[in-house]
Amino acid sequence: MPRDSGLSRAVHTWGLAAAIFNTVVGAGIFAVPAALAASAGVYAPFAFLICGAGIGSVAICFAEGGSRIPTSGGPYGYIQAAFGPAAGYITGNLYLISDLLASAGVAAALGDAAASLFPGVWAAPVRLAVIVAVPGGIAWVNLAGIGGAGRLVGGVTVLKLLPLAVFLVAGAAATHPANLPAAEPASGGFGRAMILALFAFTGMEVPLCASGEIARPERTIPRALAMAMLPIVLLYAAIQLVAQGILGPALPHSAAPLADAMLRIHPALRWMMLGGAALSMLGYLASDILGTPRLLFAFARDGLLPRVLGRVHPNRRVPHIAILTYTALAVVLAASGTFAELAVLSTLAVAVVYMLACAAAWALARRGVAEAGEPLQFRWLGAAAASGIGSMLALIAFAARNEIAGLVAVAAASGLAYTGIRRARKSRIYSGARNL
After folding, report:
1. Cβ contact 172:242 at 8 Å
2. I need a labelling partner for 306 at 20 to 30 A (CA). Which of 121, 229, 238, 435 fits?
3. pLDDT digits (tens, 9 = 90+) for 292-350
4. Could you tell me the sign of the dihedral formed by the alpha carbons of 20, 21, 23, 28, in that order?
5. Closest C-alpha to 398, from 194, 252, 185, 187
6. What is the pLDDT of residues 189-241, one digit of tens each?
7. Closest of 73, 60, 72 to residue 376, by C-alpha
8. Position 18 confidence tier, pLDDT thresholds 50, 70, 90
9. Phi/psi at 26 (nearest 5 deg)?
10. What is the C-alpha separation between 145 and 128, in angstroms, rounded?
């Protein structure tokens, strides 16, 4: 597509799969097992499997849509192609807000973790230094080229897997079947558990924002999604099972369940898991800064943001202005801490993006749209789209009324902004014609 001109298609299957894995397996899995056990008790591992089926349906739709419209902005591109520029703009705004708040939250959490090691007067300066230095360093790697950014994501993925692998191997030997019930689930708690499990699965859409730089996207995108998402479902269920088997009734009350479980085996393993959580946060930021700035870039190329954000570096062939702008916004939000109250809205916004992406993939397949060779052509795409949309509607239904109202307000404001942009463009075109 024209918006992708000047970019280098240098991301291959392993790099994209690693980026997806890094974004989905963030710091959440190091904390979610406790809340999940409190909500579902012995059935907590099944919550991951059930939600894995729902998120798998969404992943199939992402694979189908991405194989048909592989352009910068990922879901924004094929939602726009299916339903028009207004729907694309509203979705892109929700998508951008969600990713920006999530990235700021992870950076702030990483800063808080570092500050806890330096109590007193040093805590605040250390927090700020980490919040600025870590995203800034990742942005610097991204500015050097998409290849180096992909290698960073791949390296962090390998390092992130090591503590999780040790947790599963060492924990399996220390598991006691009598501990598996973990706790009596709260009344109606399984619905809450499903929400928590879905929270842990979000993020696969972020690396797809770089679809304009993916080599052979019609094959790479479906393969990478399968390579990343299938193991994640099994990994999450196994982690939950081991955590419950070690901690038992203490699991729902643990603030750092994986680290506390390893403490039962050896103190050194607890520090290893805390380091693993830090690596997961670093990996999330690496994948996010690789992907989401391409959405700003796509907006600018489509005339929906200042054109400067659509510039491509002549030598590095990356959208350098968009990368710097997105990173700076995330750093400011993380340093201010005002993003915390919008965390739920961030998740709800992702649910809307997922629903529209499922519908867009089905619509594009029905119309036979394919801009990058032979698409995936999944045989049961209609069933996958219905399952994905139903899963996301269920997630939204569990939100509070004021949270849903906030989501509607953001969507409405985006619609009004698009109307204003469209009128301004028409006015400029009309004025230009009169001057001629």
Report:
1. yes
2. 435
3. 898 899 888 888 888 899 999 988 889 999 999 999 999 998 888 644 455 566 778 88
4. positive
5. 194
6. 566 667 667 778 888 888 888 888 888 888 888 999 999 999 999 999 999 99
7. 60
8. confident
9. -95, -155
10. 27
Distances in Å between the Cα of 266 and the Cα atoms of 149, 260, 269, 272, 333 are 35, 10, 5, 10, 38
- Is residue 361 within 8 Å of residue 69, measured between CB atoms? no
pTM: 0.80
Q: Rounded to whole angstroms, how far apart are CA atoms 98 and 102?
A: 6
Q: What is the mean pLDDT of residues 118-144?
A: 90
Domains in the chain, please, with CATH? 2-430 (1.20.1740.10)
Nearest CA to 212 out of 13, 6, 377, 356 is that of 6
At 123, list the tokens: 């805590």
Whole-Å CA distances, 256 to 35, 79, 243, 262: 11, 39, 11, 10
Proportion of the chain above pLDDT 70, given as a percent: 91
Cβ pair 313, 8 in contact under 8 A: no
Angle at 141 between CA 138 and CA 145, to 5 degrees: 135
Q: Two tokens at 4?
A: 């992708």
Long-range contacts (CB closer than 8 Å, 24 or more residues apart) made by 228-232: 228/17, 228/18, 228/20, 228/21, 228/24, 228/204, 229/20, 229/24, 229/52, 229/55, 229/56, 229/59, 229/204, 230/56, 231/21, 232/21, 232/24, 232/25, 232/52, 232/201
CB 294 within 8 A of CB 304: no
- Give the chain's radius of gyration (CA, Å): 22
Q: Return the residue matching tokens 């920006």.
A: 100
